[in-house]
Amino acid sequence: MSGAQTGWVDASTMSAPLSRTCDVVIVGSGAGGAVLAAGLAAQGLDVIVLEEGGRYQASDLTLQEGDAFPALYQDRGTRGTSDLGVTIMQGRAVGGTTMVNWTTCFRTPERILAHWAAEHGVEDLALAPHFDAVEARLNIHTWPAEMANANNRTLQRGCEALGWEVRPLRRNVKGCANSGYCGVGCPVDGKQAMGITYLQDAVEAGATVISRVRVDHVDVAGRSARGVVGRAMSAEASGPDGVDVRIDAKVVVSSAGAINGPALMLRSGLDGGGRVGRRTFLHPVVAIVGRYAERIAPFYGAPQAMGSHHPIDRGPDRIGYFLEAAPLQPMLASVAASQIGAPLAAFMQALPHLSGLLALTVDGLLPGDEGGTTRLGSDGRIVVDYAFGPAYEEAFRSAMQDLARIHLAAGAELAGSLHQTPVVMRRDADVRLLEDAAYGAHAHRIFSAHQMGGLCMGADPARHPVDLQHRMRGVDNLFVVDGSVLPTALGVNPSQTIYGLAHRARGFVADAV
Amino acid sequence: MTPSRRFFLGGTLAGAGLLALGGVGLSAQSSVMVAPDAPLRALTPRQFSVLVAVADRVCPGGGALPVAREVGVAGAIDRLLSTMHPGDAAELGQALDLIENAAIALVLDGRARPFTACDPAAQDAALRAWATSGITLRRKAFLALKGLIASAYHANPATYAGVGYPGPPPGLVAGGGIP
Fold it and tell me: Which of B176, B137, B153, B163 is nearest to B80 (CA)?
């Protein structure tokens, strides 16, 4: 279309309806969409990326949680499961969750790849060269142990005292100021988020990134996707309030992420025989907070510098988990706290001396563990249902006990759970107090920073709505390239797996143009 | 959850609602209204007043910490709700209406006064009843309110000093470079 804007475009400033034609339209600009867009644009394809959130650069950021969460997270920072048993932290901005994630990077574990091959027919992904490429572009490297903040050193110290594996994490950073503000948008462009890496590459190669567009649906006719339909949405709006947007394309890609991606398919009339939205995984997170005599200042320093996979494999009948630190700036800390009134104030007044440690449970691996379900509510809102059975209750209890032992071994004055009435432990013998507590939604705080699945990839058309080449089954030119294709949770932070899969998917999508 | 369980919960709330309609004497008791600083965008004046009262119990202040109403918590939540799906504001408003309703409180918790007309101890007891209720909807409503109130309060720089948070290092903000 002649005279059309290219490069970085903000749809909320448009006064006339937007109608464009391109080779590939990608819905979502996060870890999947950005890497894919760069690869396709480099091949000379005409690529348009649509993003619901805004484009924020370092100079736009105030580093205030009260500004960042409504602007940069899904549902203004209030996303949760339908019973609010799990608080879901998921990005909504140009760059997707990479705008706000804590930068921890892992290659997909071999045990997970073996599980996918055995249980889901996902074989021969051959991700190594793709990981090599994204590690180079995003400067993924081990963060020096001596740079770890006190909040991470409690995890290191406790694990070492217990004889448990613990190691420095790998991060996608370059020129990191070690400030601790990853979760509210990096103020110094140290984090190699998509907005300053792959999306920038895509734009330089001729792609257009249009922000502040909410895509309503994919226009599907029979086995063919013709394009996508949506509307512009201004920064403070409660819903689409701008011009109509229609992008016609030879190939349509959903990179809207877990939760939003399945919802997009459902709004498009594609339910995959009832499989769309099923197997939504959250890495459900429980935490134990330690109070230390020394100053921890958990609000400063790289959020995650140390991690342990000591409890990842607890046998065939138990849910494994892995351990990392949680940065505690005041707003997030207050959300984590389970109490109100004077006890909440006392918790918060101890903040400089608190250390937050997390256990991330790995969902989707046990037989019959289907995780949660993403669906559409009657008024169009996205609903995530997630029920925790006995296996989770056992894992949550075990995980809290492990975290409490770590804190106490690291020298904490006390370790406290995030139960409605916290379990407080001052010595190792007190850890057994956790035996009598209740576990599951509403019994204690549960978080998710990793959303996966909902449009699972696999070999079986009856079980997997997406095939091994990322194609949505039943529609020849509709692809899914993001974390929603993961057939199980990962047992590691997911960003690098998504980068790698998107890098691998470039060829499949390009071949369909 | 089994269908019978769901029916039971629904029936409980529906029954309480009918009683509320019939309990004119109780539901007509006056709410203690609080005037907002700015025009409301999402909540009704009564819902806003209940939110002010609830926020003051979630974040009552003390020491170097201000009470919630001093830092405009309810107004901040009203503004946030106006940027969310209208269904979110409607549901939170309904929860505030239910918390305030004395007839429902009498049926469920034995409390015969509107929330805003209760003394702080009775308000604390009311919130505990919602937090620990056997009815999922009430626990969910408590979690929503607690999360929004604690967030709005502790995201406010006026509360930073009270929790020992120095705030973002000035040199990092707005492209100021690495200190």
Answer: B153
